[in-house]
Each structure stands twice: as C-alpha cells, then as structure tokens.
C-alpha cells in the first residue's frame, strides 16, 4: 500500500521531469538561432556616415557584392585638417568622380582597404547596367595615418614631369576626359601626381606636377 506522502513525492518528481523536458527544447531553439542572425550583423562594409553622402547606393551595392572583403578606411585614418581641407561638395580625399572613359556616364575612384594593411586606388567605370573595377595602384601606409589622396584633373593639356613615363616620350599630355590623380599631400611631400587618364581604350598613367 502506497502512503499518501509517497504519492505526493512521486507526483512532484514527475512534474519536475516534465518541466525539464519542456525547457530544454526552448534552449536549443535560441542557441541555433544566434548563428543564423550573425551574418546580417557582421558586415564588412561599415561606412562612415560621410561616405553615404557622396557615394551612390548602386556603387555601394556593387562593391558589397563584387568585393565583399574590401572596406573603405574610416576618415580618422587621415589627418583631420587635411581631410577637411580637401573635402568639396562632390569629392573627398579618397573619393572623386567624373567621366573617366568618355562614355557619358559618371564613374568613381576610391581608395580602399584590401586587408593586411594594403591600400589601393581603384576606379569603378560605369557601364550600361553595372560597373567595371580597374585597380590602379597599391600602396602601404607607413604609419597610422594615410598620406595619400585622390585629386580630379579636368580635361586639358598638362606638362609631364617624367618624360620616361610619357607616351611617345612627349613632354605634355592631353587629357580628353576627367582623370584621376594619385599622390601624397603637398603639405607633407614634394613631387608630382601619378595621373590615370583614358588613352587607347584603357586607363594609363603619367606623372604630372601638382
């Protein structure tokens, strides 16, 4: 004969086991949901707010889809005085835009971080439905601050400072379209800019005085 106290204890034990079984699946669901949420939070492209004011959304989407391991350096990677000095309504120290290939569409050039402390100046040429990536040159910053910037050259005739790098050994170059200048801040260094311009259906470079 089972005493009432024994019945009560058996009942409590059964309830405790049911409670443990009902809680364990809930914990499994929560744990399995956490990894699924992580990719949407961990985005490689974390633009400073200022880039959203300059770069078009279709360019941002193209970069995210085509070059997901690249990033854009934060503006604090540059000296604040120089970053602000070279900022205009349409350009930043590491971002310029213009029609570089003469097809009537607005292209863009940008300094990006490819990882492992390797920076690159890259042109994004706009086509009918998307962009084409043209990597212009790589460089490594020597310290915490980036000393390089991009400048936009308007169409015109410019003197070439290094005849060895000129097409056909000319001392001048005619830029028929907007062109991309890559160099170091003139406040910090002397020398010319490596200018990429459209020549014979490609972007090629020469050195032009700042």
Structure description:
By secondary structure, this protein is of the alpha+beta class. It has two domains: about 1-40; about 50-210, no CATH class. The protein has four helices and ten strands. It has helices at about 5-40, 50, 55-65, 80-85, and strands spanning about 95-100, 105-115, 120-125, 130-140, 150-155, 155-160, 170-175, 180-185, 190-200, 205-210. The strands form three sheets. The protein has a four-stranded antiparallel beta sheet with strand order 1-2-3-4, with no helix packed on it. Strands 5-8-9-10 form a four-stranded antiparallel beta sheet, with no helix packed on it. A hairpin with a 4-residue loop joins strand 3 (about 120-125) and strand 4. The radius of gyration is 29 Å and the shape is globular. Mean pLDDT is about 80; it is low at about 1-45.
Please render the helix and strand layout as text.
Elements lengths: L3 H38 L7 H4 L4 H10 L13 H6 L9 E4 L8 E9 L2 E9 L4 E9 L8 E6 L2 E4 L12 E4 L3 E6 L7 E7 L4 E7 L1
Antiparallel strand pairs: 1-2, 2-3, 3-4, 5-8, 6-7, 8-9, 9-10
Shape annotation: globular
| Secondary structure tally, helices | 4
Strand order of the largest sheet: 1-2-3-4
Number of domains: 2
Give the helix level as a range of percent. Answer: 25-40%
The gist of it:
Mean pLDDT is 80; it is low at 1-44. It is built from four helices and ten strands. With 210 residues, it is an alpha+beta fold.
């Amino acid at each position: 004969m089972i005493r009432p106290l024994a019945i009560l204890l058996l009942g409590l034990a059964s309830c405790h086991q049911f409670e443990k079984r009902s809680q364990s699946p809930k914990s499994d669901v929560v744990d399995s949901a956490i990894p699924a949420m992580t990719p949407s939070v961990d985005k490689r492209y974390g633009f400073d707010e200022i880039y959203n004011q300059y770069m078009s959304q279709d360019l941002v989407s193209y970069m995210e889809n085509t070059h997901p391991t690249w990033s854009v350096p934060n503006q604090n990677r540059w000296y604040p005085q120089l970053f602000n000095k070279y900022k205009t309504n349409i350009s930043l120290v590491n971002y310029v835009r213009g029609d570089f290939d003469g097809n009537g569409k607005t292209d863009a050039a940008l300094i990006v971080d490819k990882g492992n402390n390797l920076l690159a100046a890259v042109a994004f040429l706009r086509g009918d439905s998307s962009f084409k990536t043209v990597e212009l040159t790589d460089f490594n910053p020597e310290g915490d601050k980036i000393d390089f910037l991009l400048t936009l050259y308007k169409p015109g005739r410019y003197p070439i400072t290094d005849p060895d790098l000129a097409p056909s050994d000319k001392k001048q170059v005619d830029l028929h379209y907007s062109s991309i200048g890559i160099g170091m801040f003139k406040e910090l260094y002397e020398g010319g800019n490596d200018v990429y311009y459209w020549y014979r259906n490609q972007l090629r470079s020469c050195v032009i005085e700042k």
